[in-house]
Amino acid sequence: MDILNWLLIGASVPLIIVLVVRTKKRAKELDDRIRDYKAEQEAAKSKPGYSDPYMDFAQLMSESRKPKGRNR
Q1: What pLDDT does 69 receive?
Q2: What SS3 state is found at 48?
Q3: Quick check: 63 pLDDT over 90?
Q4: How many structural domains comprise the chain?
Q5: Helix 53-64 and helix 2-45: axis angle, to 10°?
């Protein structure tokens, strides 16, 4: 029984590492999207006319959800 526990622990370590790496990657992507959104908002402030920030953010989020390359 002790060997089975060690095998399960050994098998779960790579899984945890993969999950941490994916989480960091997604957090960086989100940070980049937010930075792009803020830059677009600053650029939109200098333009005359009405700008809906919620619609702009929704478009930005929908663009980022499009699959890139292979399936996620």
Answers
A1: 61
A2: coil
A3: no
A4: 1
A5: 140
